[in-house]
Amino acid sequence: MAKEHGSLSINSQNIFPIIKKWMYSDHDIFYRELISNACDAITKLKKLSLIGEYEEPDDIEYKVKVEISSKDKTIKIIDNGLGMTSEEVNEYINQIAFSGAEAFLEQYKDKTNDDQIIGHFGLGFYSAFMVANKVTIDTLSYKKDATAVHWECDGGTDYDMSDSDKTSVGTEITLYLNDDSYEFCNEYKAREVLEKYCSFMPVEIFMENVDEEPKTVDIPEEELQEKDVVVKRFTKDAVTEEVEEDGEKKTVEKEPAKKMVTINKRPEALNDIHPLWTKHPNECKKEDYIEFYHRVFKDYKEPLFWIHLNMDYPFNLKGILYFPKINMEYESAEGTIKLYNNQVFVADNIKEVIPEFLLLLKGVIDCPDLPLNVSRSALQNDGFVKKISDYITKKVADKLSGMCKTDRENYEKYWDDINPFIKYGCLKDEKFAEKMNDYIIFKNLDNKYLTLKEALEENKENHENTIFYVTDMQEQSQYINMFKADNIDALILDNRIDQPFIQSLEGKNEGLKFSRVDAAIDDSFKEEVNEDELKDISEKLTDTFKKALNNDKLNVNVTKLKDDNISSMITLSEQDRRMQDMMKMYGMAGMDPSMFGANGQTLVLNANNKLVDYVAKNPEGENTKLFCEQIYDLALLAHAPLSAEAMTAFISRSNKIMELLAK
Ligand SMILES: Nc1ncnc2c1ncn2[C@@H]1O[C@H](COP(=O)(O)OP(=O)(O)OP(=O)(O)O)[C@@H](O)[C@H]1O
């Protein structure tokens, strides 16, 4: 072909602002764009061969090669795909002044949007100019009698085209890196980027550092394969050993001499061209899922279970969602959902496609139909994207409810680990909440799992619509013992997510009330007494305790508990406690709760207890103050941990009481 010099039919006002804009996002994305073009070119050629349009050489091995050189500061991406004729280079590479770019600029000119926008406008190839001063293409089309084309452009709007000496079908793109981008020809960096974007691309990808001598390995001659590059052949000496037999030293041969070959290390593809999610669930074994999980998420722990998504209609979507142990108490639970478009990595955790609560899981989703190269703000309003997101939510709910129905044993086994996720999902997603409604279970004091309905049924007799619960088995043990002694059940709700969750349940189920075991002393724990009977003692005790504790505002409630071993307890109404919890959460701890209408704790005194009775009868007794203080602290202790100061006082007082006893 005649040499050709021309101007790209774009102008710099047109394309370079887009490329510059893109500059703000990840530069490494050029690897993805160029390698996915190379994979596409190979996929297309394979199709042409299938329909008889191309006769492929017998020994064809389709692959993409990435050659890096730190010495030359170059990256080459070489494929044996369908290649391009000079007309095609003209059409696909030179004439990029498609109306799309202008329309795009018009639409986005006011937005600093750094999302994946380029690919959508067919600018993938030009991403090379984010990192390179100069780019060349050498390409030979598969078409009969095609001549090879050399194209080069130094980042301006001029290009040169001439004949190329390329003799094999395919395309070789060379990037001459700019000063800021040398890192991309560093072997480690290149490997990292390729692993990020190309780990599951559908054509084998090999990387080679051309500055380095090829690495070699020694193998036994019989393992030599046809494609191996032999460096040298040698014989490994026999391995012998000295042994003593009948008092005589002998040399015996442990391993015979062996013929060996030194070969260049066989190239290893850095990607898995048939990732697990592309297979049919029937073909996949448990070990496959676990191995895939370890490899992709670098998580040494085992996932609890998983969902394999596999759907062709009405849209194409495949993927695997793993349920890891989800602990929202101590670590900020955050999963990773990797999104792919035809095995090309797009991004992690795209909230527009994956419902937010699912981001607590780990998984991969491949959706070729997604317009993923469009900006995220466009995705947000895309009805199709919403459908995908709804589908994923539905599948997750189906899996969980199915497991609850048919494999309750495992469901219960996993429940403690997955319930924060499910509850969070219910709070975040109304549809998910509806679907999961009947499959939320609660652990009770006997470690049995009940649905809300079952729990209400159990307590129906005396406490219609009220569910008692425990948030801390240790702290609330005294209350729990009372509940157990009286055969009243309570649920264990000890995760942070439980508070908002039960509030939402109360909102949805009219009349339903959750009450923590220490919110009030239930009537069933008390003896029936006549109010007047307690009036006298009540006034006396209130006065004595207020004085002894030097606290005028103390709320005291005197009652007769069936269990006379208990001297005192603290109660805090459900409403007040929730208010205080909320204040703590918003960092307002230490403020006076009464400001918000929460009047705090009540000290419940048991008139049946001997010590309390003693205080009532001896308000001026020598040790009455000491008893009051101790009774109060004991009640506090059974309710929540004491402050450091209170604990110190409690310990020194306890010692003093023992001294008194020892006298
Ligand atoms: N390695 C290659 N082999 C053959 N043709 C190629 C190669 N790279 C690019 N092309 C041709 O150039 C065209 C433009 O590539 P470019 O990456 O700019 O956009 P695209 O691939 O069409 O769009 P997108 O990046 O959104 O997929 C391609 O559609 C393809 O026809």
Considering the chains and any ligands shown, give keywords for the structure.
alpha+beta; 663 residues; binds adenosine-5'-triphosphate; Ribosomal Protein S5, domain 2; Heat Shock Protein 90; Ribosomal_Su5_D2-typ_SF; eight-stranded mixed β-sheet; five-stranded mixed β-sheet; 5 domains; Molecular chaperone HtpG; 35% helix; elongated
Overview of this structure, please?
The chain has five domains: 197 residues, Heat Shock Protein 90 (2-Layer Sandwich); 49 residues, no CATH class; 144 residues, Ribosomal Protein S5, domain 2 (2-Layer Sandwich); 78 residues, Rossmann fold (3-Layer(aba) Sandwich); 135 residues, Heat shock protein 90, C-terminal domain (Four Helix Bundle (Hemerythrin (Met), subunit A)), CATH 1.20.120. It contains 18 helices and 26 strands. Helix 8 packs parallel to helix 10 and helix 9 packs antiparallel against helix 10. It is elongated, with a radius of gyration of 37 Å. Bound molecules: adenosine-5'-triphosphate. The site of adenosine-5'-triphosphate has 19 residues, from helix 2 and helix 3. Adenosine-5'-triphosphate binds next to helix 2 and helix 3.
Q: What is this entry, summarized?
A:
With 663 residues, the protein is an alpha+beta fold. The protein contains 18 helices and 26 strands.
Secondary structure layout plus pairing:
Elements: E1 4-7, H1 12-23, H2 29-50, E2 64-69, E3 74-79, H3 86-94, H4 99-108, E4 132-140, E5 149-153, E6 158-163, E7 170-177, H5 187-198, E8 205-209, E9 216-220, E10 230-236, E11 239-245, E12 248-255, E13 258-264, H6 286-297, E14 305-311, E15 317-323, E16 336-341, E17 344-348, E18 362-366, H7 376-380, H8 383-406, H9 408-428, H10 430-436, E19 441-443, E20 449-451, H11 452-458, E21 466-470, H12 477-485, E22 491-492, H13 498-508, E23 513-516, H14 531-549, E24 555-559, E25 568-572, H15 574-585, E26 601-606, H16 610-617, H17 624-637, H18 644-662
Parallel strand pairs: 2-8, 16-18, 21-22, 21-23, 24-26
Antiparallel strand pairs: 1-6, 2-3, 3-7, 4-5, 4-7, 5-6, 9-13, 10-13, 11-12, 14-15, 15-18, 16-17, 19-20, 25-26
The chain binds adenosine-5'-triphosphate.
